[in-house]
Every structure is written in C-alpha cells, then in structure tokens.
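Lab notebook, bench 4. The sequencing result for the construct came back, and we need a structural model before the next group meeting so we can plan mutations. Quick request posted to the team channel:

Model the 3D structure of this chain.
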Amino acid sequence: MEKITPNKMRPHTFLFILMWIPFICNAQTAKTSDQLDQIKGLYEVDNSGNISYVAILEDLNLTEKEIYDRALSYFITKYGDANSVIQEKNEAEGRIIGKGIYPNVHTGNGLIARVFSVVHVLRIDIKEGRCRVIVSLTNYDVKSYDGYGNVYPSQYPITNTFPFNPKGAEKNFHGQAFAKAHQRVEKEIKELEISIREGVISNSVTKDDW
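Done. Here's the predicted structure in token form:
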C-alpha cells in the first residue's frame, strides 16, 4: 500500500482534516489571549453584527468641500483596485462610503495553511472643520491550502468566530486574525487622518516656491 505523505495528501484527505480541525485547534495561546486583552473596549459590535471603530477628526481647519475632496482622493488612491469599490459619493450630504479588503492579514499554519483577509467598509461623514470615520469589519475571506497547492476559499462573518463567539472553534487562528485586523484598522485611520490634514500628496511636495 502506498504511504501517503503530507505532500501527497489527496483532496478528500484534506477535506477530512478540515472536519477535524475544530477539535484539535480549539485552544488559544497565552500570546493570543494577551493581544485580545490589550484591544478590549476599542471597538464595538454594531446593530448589523459588524465590528465597528469610530474616530472623530477635529480642528481640521478646512472647509467641508476641502475635507470631502481630500477624503475622496484618499479613497481613489487607496481603493482603486477591483476588490475595493466606492459605494457612495454624496457631496451634498458630506458622505463617502467604500468597501474593501485588507489582504493577507494573518497566515495560520497547522495541519493546513490558512490565509485570512478581512472585508471591511470605510465610511466618512463630513462637516465644516471635522469629520467622522467609521471602519466596520464584516467578513473573513479565507483561503486554505492543501499539500497539492489546491485552494479552498471560504467567507464568513467575523462575529460568528472567536472571540465574539466564545464557543467558536479554532480560537487561536481567529484570535490572531482579529488582533491583526485591529492593527490594520488603526493604520487605516492614521493614514486617512494624515491624508485629510496634509493632503494625499504631502504639502512639502506641492509647495508654491518651486
């Protein structure tokens, strides 16, 4: 009988392993627990079942139109690919909404390799001299790889998983994925604030005395 090594796993063997993963990867490590403890209270689960972050940018010293134009430039620069689409542009109401993906947020390695990306919505509400930024994390977009290099894609709501579902399986995989998604959100908000306060292109580059 042929011995099946990890590199020779057949697709049906891989699917069998997937069925057992919830039972053998259910524990979270101390590292994951510490990371999740550090970010508690910095987000909330909204009425749509998404994980939301809210930041108010004050004292912008810009008109509503200037803020809108800079926010729109940020969207066009950051969300110009096929996976990231501006869903709403409403200058009269001072609102821009876009949907995107944070790619390759976390790679989990165990019996299988699993790459987590995060689907999110970015909303900006604009008033004179200030704006509100809302980032909502909705789904994990996951690609699992077997020993042959075959890809098994899946997508599911983040709030169905640990730590939002205490009984959720694969606590360490999902705990790490969420902790790193949180870091992506913090980076997004910082980049957006810089772009609005200074413009997408630095003021030092566009100064008049050239």
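The domain at 43-198 is CATH 3.30.530.80 (Alpha-D-Glucose-1,6-Bisphosphate; Chain A, domain 4).
Will bring this to the meeting.
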